[in-house]
């Protein structure tokens, strides 16, 4: 009897040891973290991001899975997955109303070690807590062809008009917007908003109907700019992002209202034969580029504690390791919003934005505070009407904008 | 004279068909150009027929895995729909009571519901099933197949219902007298006579499920599970569309379906001529 | 000879599919109906507020919704005619016994093999860039301009793309129907002296009624629910004039985050169209000739 007990005991003990040994030998000394997932909206960096997670696995043994980005339908898919409790561990949200919408899903990262590296005022905060960080900043303004345009000749409404007319006389197009909602009106209308003393407050008053764009100085001048554009430049509704940049690359268009991201559209054209840069949109004396944070990465607070820990480990690695820095600047081609990265070898457009950011010579992205969906659903259709209706003036357009805004803000 | 007419007619038919396909020509031609070339001339033949974009597209789309996934999901979904819908429709046609009419009307009337209105509640129902019944419905092929069957049920039942009327009930009665159970009657007598419409339904469903983007995009997340449309949309960003890669990807997506259709056609012809000889 | 077993057989044959169908379509739809009485933005953590019939009242005041409803009706009518006429013509051409028939049939059907979203993008490319290119170079400016910039033409563009995609689909159903017409009938008619046109209208068309019911219903529901092509071809533009019904709901739910309102719209429209199409089915089924 005793022998059976002893041998059973030994058997049990050896089993335990075997299992323990088995578990330990399957993972490196620091116990392996669970696999986490990232879901983000920029198609352009998808491949580089996947390559980065491969390197992460090589360096630390932890796995990160990248879910396919979906461009247009990103928000819909994100919402559906979060609603079904199938959300990703880390995901991206656009600034402004989109960030506001999903805030109940964010994990509070205020106490994580990496948040100290975020450049001032760039983090995503609600009620004083930090919930997300930007991968980069972006900026837009007038991207111009140096051989066709001299910035000293584009400093106000009159000189803008003259430049456009002169180029038109030569058979070239001076300026081009594009038909996509943001490139048609979303970005360019940011300037008059950003020039208000308190952009956010102005927007709130506009929502309540206490002020009107048609009665505000900066917007009135904006209306005149649009009249000039309509008279002397190509109709943006006939232009797509592809052809806008194509025309620019081939010297048919001298200036486009675009951002540093558009540089990527030019690489297929090889050596352009001319230099390019970005200058401010000269509305009402503005001499600054519009720089802002397009989106932030957040952690899903619905994930398990182990997953959240794994997510934090990954983010920390991303923001502090050399591989991570290299990816952000050279692979993703973001302009870093971190205090611990040096940005060298930026393309000319990113360079212009970076310099503006470093010196503080920027105007904010007021459009982040617009009511949700207003650019695509209301402002863009109004702009389409403006460019399609021959005798609509900039002034009448402003009234239409006010009407559209009033309807949407309800 | 008649021969000339016929020849002309044939030529006309061929030209018509070709013109009909010109958009596909555009798609093909542009899968070989880079962005700059595309911008120059949309319609021209490419300067070089390098398959580099196809290679890149295959790699980025994880094409062969996605292909396998699509194949699995499509075949199983269609198989189940065909079996269950034919059974259901037959029973509904042969039973003439309130329930049968009600069920049929339910199937038919829901064909009009736009998917968008079901999207979110469906996700929640699937989530509930996972939490309460512990059957994972999301991020699995099984769940996707289940939902595909649900969504294609109405149309299949509707189509079968119409064609079952052409099966003479006398044949069924004879089989029953011979001692066949209901299953026997159905599988041995009725189902073979539904060949034509089964193939039609199969073709329509295969194409619909193969090309479905919306449902898989919501339910599948893991890269390894992706179906072909999901991996094709890899190239469609919010502002930029990598046209050359997208076109290459699209061409790759269509090839399997075309091959399927060409083969399925041959089978239809065989089936129909066999029926005619009978 | 109704036995107790009959009920069991009935259940056995129909319940499996019906169960799947119920969980995937009916229950979510019912839940959706509940949601139409709420005001909610679609995020689980955010509050759902019961507002009763408010959403339904509001949608009647929504001009954009009413416009979209009317445009959807117009689109559906055009599409219905175009798709069925073309599908029927193709099916007749292709069953005429020419050598080209098989090849032509495959070619006519090919467009249906491409998913809607992608189709829309390709055609968008054609209507904007390609047309812009062809117009000036051929001088046919009045036909080849950017259709998508003009409300009327943008709608026609949608009809064209939808027809291009669907004609092959209806063609197949009509072919199945035509193949089902016994040759003897047509031979007998020929012998009796009926010419091509007579044979077509007096024999083929009546016997095609089942196929016709099916095609009519399929194109009706397809045109009605159209979303992919709408989104990728015009995205509702220009100026929301081609925002068809499903897109309007989608924008309401995901663009404006007004979930309850979106659901209410969906239900209302569903009710109206269900009524219309069920009537259509009943009428055409009565005229079907049973073998």
Write a structural description.
With 410 residues, chain A is α/β, with parallel strands linked by helices. Chain A has 15 helices and 12 strands. In chain A, the strands form 2 sheets. Chain A has a 6-stranded mixed β-sheet with strand order 2-1-3-11-5-4. In chain A, strands 6, 7, 8, 9, 10 and 12 form a 6-stranded mixed β-sheet that branches. The longest helix of chain A has 25 residues. About 6% of the residues of chain A have low confidence. The longest helix of chain B is centred in the C-terminal third of the chain and has 35 residues. Chain B is mainly alpha-helical. Chain B has one domain: MetI-like fold (Orthogonal Bundle). Chain C contains 12 helices and 2 strands; from the N terminus they run H-E-E-H-H-H-H-H-H-H-H-H-H-H. In chain C, helix 2 crosses helix 12 and helix 3 runs parallel beside helix 6. Chains B and C meet through helix 1, helix 2, helix 5, helix 6 and helix 7 of B and helix 1, helix 4, helix 5, helix 6 and helix 9 of C.
